Amino acid sequence: MPATVILGAQWGDEGKGKITDLYSRDADVVVRYQGGNNAGHTIVVDGERFALSLIPSGVLYPQVTPVIGNGTVVDPGVMLKEMDALSERGIDPSRVRVSGNAHVIMPYHRKMDAVLERYLGKEQIGTTKRGIGPAYMDKYSRFGIRMQDLFDPKIFRQKLEIVLKDKNRQLTKVYNQLPLDLDEIYEEYLVYADRLQDYVTDTSLLVWKAIHGGKNVLFEGAQGTLLDIDHGTYPFVTSSNSTAGGAVTGSGIGPRDIDSVIGVAKAYITRVGTGPFPTELHDETGERMIEIGGEYGVVTGRRRRTGWLDAVALRYSARVNGLTEIAMTKLDILSNFGSLKIAVAYDSLGERYDEFPRQQRVLYNCHPVYENLEGWGVDISGVESYDDLPDAAKRYVERVEELSGVRITTIGVGPGREATIAHPAP
Ligand code: GDP
Ligand code: IMO
Ligand code: MG
C-alpha cells in the first residue's frame, strides 16, 4: 500500500468514504487533496454512521494523521464544526493537519455561488452552493486568501479589504445583492484563526517524510473523475482536479511517490446536479435504484439521478487516472433487479463510439449500446467470500473487469465496514 490514491471513478458518491476507511486500518497518514465541503463521505461502523465533508475518512483510526492538503478549499467554520462533532462522538480530531497554502472559503464565495447559479437559471450546474467554484476562481485569479493569511491580522485585513471591495461591487451592482460587512467577516475569521493555528503546518513536507520514512499514506479524492474540471463533463463539473493527478499537485509530492491508484465505482451509477449522463434511467427501474440504494445526497439531501453501469466511462476513468485496481461498491443493491444492463459503447449522431467522447455535443446525444446480463435475485449482503457469491454476480464482476481492463479487488455488499469482500487474483 505505501502510497495509494483512492478516488471516484464515476460522478461522485461511489463510496470513497467507506473504501478509504477500510484501507485506513493499515494507514499512517490519509490526505484529502482537492475539493472542500461539497463532498459528503459516509462511513458506517457497527451500525453507527459518520458523514464527513472535509476531514479525511481515516480520522476514525487513532494511528492515522488526517491531512487536508494544499489543493483543497477550506471553510474554517465548517472544519471546526466537523471537528467538534467528532469530539462529541469520542473521536479525537487533534491529529488533523491542514496546509497553510490551502485556500479559504469566505462568505462572499458562498454568496457568489448562489447568485451565479440563480443567474444561470435553467442552465445551472446544480452546485452544492458551498462556495467551492468561487473560491477556486479566486485562487486562479490570484485573489484568494490562504490559511496562512489568517494568522497575520494586518495582512489578512489588507487582503480582505481589497477583495471585499471588488466582491461588494459585483454583488451590489451586478447581482442586486446587499454588500457584506468587512468588520463582521474580519472578526469572525480571526476567531477561527485562533482555534485553527495549531493545526496548520507544511503538509507537503509532512507527507513526503511519511512516504520516505516507509509509512503507509492514502490520498482520498473527493467528487469523481467525470466531475473533474479538466477531464469531466465540462461545464457540469466541480472546480478542481479530482483525478489522480490532483493527488500530486494537491498534496505537494511527486508522481513517482504514488504506487497505486484505486478507482471506486458503484455497481451502477448515480449523479447529483445537472449535466450529461448517458445511461440515466427515467423509469421505474431508476426509481427503485434511488429507493433501494438510498440515493439521497449526504451534503444537500438531493435525490441522486440513477442509471446502469457505464463501461465506456469506466474505461475512460481507468485511462485518465492510471487505475491499478477498482473497488466496486453496492453490488448488493443489484440483487433487487431481475436483469441487468451495462453500457459497452454509445451511439451518437449516427456514429458508434467505443471511447468516451470528448465533444460536448456528441456526449449530449449519446444513446448507450447495452449488453444484457442475468441478475442473481438473492440477497448477498451477508456474503463474506468471493467464492460464495452467486455465479451471476461473479459473471457481472468479471465482465466489468474485462470491459474496463482493470481488476476489481474489493467488492462492497453493504454500507458497513465489514460488508466487503476481497477478490484475490485467480
Ligand atoms: P462517497 O462520497 O464516495 O464517500 O459516497 P457517499 O457516502 O456520498 O455515498 C455512498 C453511499 O453508499 C453511502 O450511504 C454509503 O454508506 C453507502 N455504501 C457504500 N458502499 C456500499 C455498499 O457496498 N453497499 C451498500 N448497500 N451501501 C454502500
Ligand atoms: P463526493 O466527494 C457528487 C457536484 C454537484 C454539482 C457539481 C458542482 O461526496 O463524491 P460544486 O459545489 O462542487 O461546485 O458542484 O458537482 N458535486 C458532487 N456530486 N458527490 C460529490 O462529492 C460532489 N461534489 C460536488 O452536485 O453537480
Ligand atoms: Mg458523497
Brief write-up:
The chain is of the alpha/beta class and 426 residues long.
Keywords summarizing the entry:
single chain; 426 residues; alpha/beta; 4-stranded mixed β-sheet; 12 helices; 20 strands; globular; binds guanosine-5'-diphosphate; binds 6-O-phosphoryl inosine monophosphate; binds magnesium ion
Give the overall shape: globular
Whole-number radius of gyration? Answer: 22 Å
Structural class: alpha/beta
Helix content: 25-40%
Query: Tell me about the biggest sheet?
Result: 10 strands, mixed
Mean pLDDT: 97
Q: What compounds sit in this structure?
A: guanosine-5'-diphosphate, 6-O-phosphoryl inosine monophosphate, magnesium ion
Give the strand tally.
20
How far apart lie the N and C ends? 20 Å
Describe the structure.
This protein is an alpha/beta fold. 32% of the residues lie in helices and 20% in strands. The protein has a 10-stranded mixed β-sheet with strand order 9-7-5-2-10-1-11-15-19-20, with helices on both faces. Strands 14, 16, 17 and 18 form a 4-stranded mixed β-sheet that branches. Strand 16 and strand 17 (351-353) form a beta hairpin. The mean pLDDT is 97. The protein binds guanosine-5'-diphosphate, 6-O-phosphoryl inosine monophosphate and magnesium ion (MG). The site of guanosine-5'-diphosphate has 22 residues, from helix 1 and strand 3. 6-O-phosphoryl inosine monophosphate (IMO) binds at residues 8, 12-13, 38-41, 125-128, 130, 132-133, 222-224, 227, 238-239, 272-273.
